[in-house]
Structure formats: structure tokens, C-alpha cells
Amino acid sequence: MPPGEVSLTLHTLPLFKGLPEKQLGLLERSAIIRTYVAGEMILDEHKEAGGMYVLLSGRAKLFKLAKDGREQILYFFGPGEPFCLCTMFDRRRAPANASAVEESRVLVLSGATFEAMARQEPSILFNILRVVSRRLKEAMDLVESLSLREIPGRVALYLTHAEHGGPKVATVKLPMTHRELAKLVGATPEALSRAFRRMAEDGLVEVKGRSVKILDRERLGALAEGE
To answer: What pTM value is reported for the model?
Structure first.
């Protein structure tokens, strides 16, 4: 890796905002950067994680596998996102699998070093708590969506969380394929296509590849809420 790359990375990540140089230096000495090709496993739920991971570039997904091979995607990560936080202070197996969706670079931090640093500078724990709280809320939303909503409602909930744009028309650029989105919302690709088609016929969205234009925010929000 280029000289100083780890140091530059640590200084720019929101997770480490406000940390003194001494603590950043401690992390830098134990950190490494790994590159993964698309489809390569980053974490295996049957093996120890041994630290904390931060996605620097590319995209990755967190997922569980059923015994019959079915995949349930739990979360998609973008650049700057930390993951495997729950194993930082306790050497245990990863809670789920993680793999690269496209070529990705990952910063790996030693759990033991991170714990030593946190004892010296507890303020970092507030940054971790913010991330964990957000992930817990998203996990609760996913469980509620999969158990209480029909597939169109699940898709609507995802879109309402992801949408951005002006007051009249919002556009969601899906960071994944339709097949990956189907796994995220617990549907087959065919069921997802039917849901998108039905929502388009009802005037809620317009779908062109990975671009989803939201035509009626109010009704889409009502669908997401199960109304």
C-alpha cells in the first residue's frame, strides 16, 4: 500500500473523528488494507472475525445462508462503513457472512489494539454506539418488514428509506441488482418484478434498470406503512 495510506484513511473516516493523534497512531500500527475481488468472502460466520473491518472502496454485503443454500441479505455496505463491530472486544465467530459485491478494499483493525485504544480514549465508543444504534434500528425494520408486510410493502419501505430528490420527484439509484434487492426484501426475482410492475401500474414508481423514480411519495409511504 502507498506510504501513509492507512494514516490518511483513519483521519478521514467519520468513525474516528475527534480521536487524538496518539490513538490514531496506535490504530495505524496494527491496521492493514486488503483487496477482495467480486464474490470473494470477507467474513465467514463459521470462523473467528478477529477485529473490526471498514470498507474503503467498492461494495460489500452482509448475509446469512440457510441449509438449503438460500441467501438472506441483511445489509449492503458502501465506502466508509464499518462492520463486524460486535466482535471487536470478544474473539468469536462472525455473526454473519460478508462478501465483496464488486472489487473492494477493506481496512482491518486489530480487536485487541482497538480495545486498548478505547480504554485510553473512551470517546471513540460514542462513535461506535451511534453506528450500532443505527444498525439495530435498520435490523428491526428488516425483521418487521419480512414478517408483517407483503412484498410490495417491503419494496416500498426500502425505497422510502433510500429515496432522495426534490419535493416533487425523487429518484432512487439502486446500489444493487434487482436479484440482490430481491434477496434483501426476502422475495424471488420474479416476485420482485411483479411488485415493481404492480407499483408502476398504480402510478407509484417508474422503473428503468437500477433507476427508480418515485411518482407518488404519499401513496408509496402509505404502502410502506401497510396501509
So the answer is: 0.65
